[in-house]
Each structure stands twice: as structure tokens, then as C-alpha cells.
């Protein structure tokens, strides 16, 4: 068996008048995230982890924010596209693990829905999807609530 590990990171500024979408789930909140697409930091980080593991570039190359086609895009389409590319290259996704950094809102009650959403999108069993959330303890831009960030890691496997 061959293995490939990938990591991905994304951050978006918080913004009034925008929806907060994390892992494909709309989170009730008085602010959202600024971005060209729906600014789903969780799915963007997951896409980059997948692309990185397979050596296929990054999300900015594939879906440039200068392209009007991706204005307000539902990031679930990026995940579907990326997963297809990874599979076409012969890889199977074994698991995904994400850590969301957000001072607000409290994500504890939303984590199960995010986990279910990721499992469906990535065609994984629930026990192959890790969703953690942490604050930044009031430190830096994330700690001030000016941004939300996410790290993602994936493992790909292929029969040698
Ligand atoms: Mg992004």
C-alpha cells in the first residue's frame, strides 16, 4: 500500500452581512466570512489538503478568485471536483481531520452537523472524519474575532 499525507490551511475575515458557512453547513451567526466564494474555510482547507497529498496544486490555481464563475460559489462544488481529481489520479481518501479556529460563535453544538456534512461530501464513514474547534484565547486577529481559520489533514492510500 502507498500512502500520501496532505495538509491544508485557510483563513477568511469575518464580515457583517455575510453568511457563515463551515464545512458546508450554514451556522446561525450575526456575521459571516468575506470572500469571493461562500468563504467556507473548512472546505477550502480540506480541498488544499487533498490536492497537496496528491501533488495536484492548490485551490487558488484550480478555482481562482479572479474568475466570476466562482463568485459566491458553494464550496461543496470545489470539494466534489477536487475529490474527483484525486480519485482519477488513483488515490482513495482514508480520513480527514480538521481544526477550526474561531473565537466566536461557539461551535460545540454545530460540530456534529459539520462532521455529517464532511462525511457525506467526502464519502467517508463518520469515524474517518475528525472535527475539532478551538478559540485562539483572545490572541491575534482570530482571537479578536476578525477572522476564522481552519487546518485540515488527510491521508490518501493507493494499492502499490
Ligand atoms: Mg479560502
Question: Any key phrases for this structure?
Answer:
single chain, 160 residues, alpha+beta, five-stranded mixed beta sheet, two-stranded antiparallel ribbon, 5 helices, 31% strand, globular, binds magnesium ion
Rounded mean pLDDT is 97
Largest sheet: 5 strands, mixed
Shape: globular
Structural class: alpha+beta
DSSP E strands, number: 7
Uncertain spans, ≥5 residues at pLDDT below 50? none
Give the cofactors and ligands. magnesium ion
Spatial extent as radius of gyration: 15 Å
Q: Secondary-structure element sequence?
A: EEEEHHHEHEHE
Describe this structure in words.
This protein has five helices and seven strands; from the N terminus they run ββββαααβαβαβ. With 160 residues, it is an alpha+beta fold. A five-stranded mixed sheet has the order 4-1-7-5-6. It has a two-stranded antiparallel ribbon with strand order 2-3. α4 (111-122) links the parallel β5 (92-101) and β6 (129-134). α1 runs parallel beside α3 (76-88). Bound molecules: magnesium ion. The site of magnesium ion has 5 residues, from β1 and α1.
